[in-house]
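Researcher: Quick sanity check before group meeting.
Model: Go ahead. Protein one:
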Amino acid sequence: MDHSTHHSGTAHDHTAHEGGHGQGTTWATAMKATLHCLTGCAIGEILGMVIGTALMWGNVQTMALAITLAFVFGYSFTLWAVVRAGVSLKAAIKVALAADTVSIAVMELVDNGIIALTPGAMDAHLSDGLFWYALLGGFAVAFVITTPVNKWMIGRGKGHAVVHAYH
């Protein structure tokens, strides 16, 4: 039986909370989940860009490191929260993967796509305003695009809805 209809009308029914209360699929819930994900992604991506640029790596290597670190930091935020809630590390890893993979992937695709398509951004240095404008602009657009994705997933018991059991 589908989880969202199994508990229909009960406190466990996340899809019944459209009105803005509870842990449901409100825009506020989706924005909070997206901001949580964006925070980890931004830390990892900026760190990767700084390291790659400082080591004078090429664009491909720097972007690969930035994306990898975005996933690592994005997952780690959820992982730490779930482990603190008393879940085993193995189970917490499964929760983090289920909760964040689509959100991080969409965010990284959008953000890095914007950076790649912004003329001169890939060759800009850390001291150039263009580097930061493209990066921060990419994060802003990624937030706007990823929030509806997270809202849709949470409404179906996926993504950050998986984490709600541990809050």
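Researcher: Fine. The other one?
Model: Protein two, sequence then structure:
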Amino acid sequence: MGTNGSTMLEPLRQGLPPIDPSAVSSSVSCALPARYEAVRGARQFTRATLGQWELDHRFDDVALVVSELVTNALRHALPSDTAPRENAKEPPVRLHLMRWTGRLVCAVRDPSHDGPMARESEEDFSAESGRGLFLVDSFSDGWGWHPLAGSLRGKVVWALFRLG
């Protein structure tokens, strides 16, 4: 991972439960195209990565959360207008999977500065957008988000899984 990637994740690490960043045993990421088919690609990437890390038994929960985070990110990453991007070479959505000894974090970066919003009322939970964060909250051991620092635009939304 280049310097851009590691500095991008600094605030992510700060926003997580106390973890020594040097204790990350594995960290991978993949760029996702701004198309809804990217959700399938993110699931395949997650399956392959968890297989390498011998965490296949966690795939169902992690893949569900990854799917929701990527879907939310794509909602913000897909251009609603035809304005050119400042950095067209940089894919708008990126999935990071990081593994420590006792935990796994999946983080999704997107170009929007708006924080994710869970729906308040019961009837809103049946709405597509509100249900996603409800599922993330239900299937992970914690989640959060933060704006990107420095010259990077957008935010990162992350979810934490404890590994028993």
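Researcher: One line on it for the slide.
Model: The CA atoms of residues 64 and 73 lie 14 Å apart.
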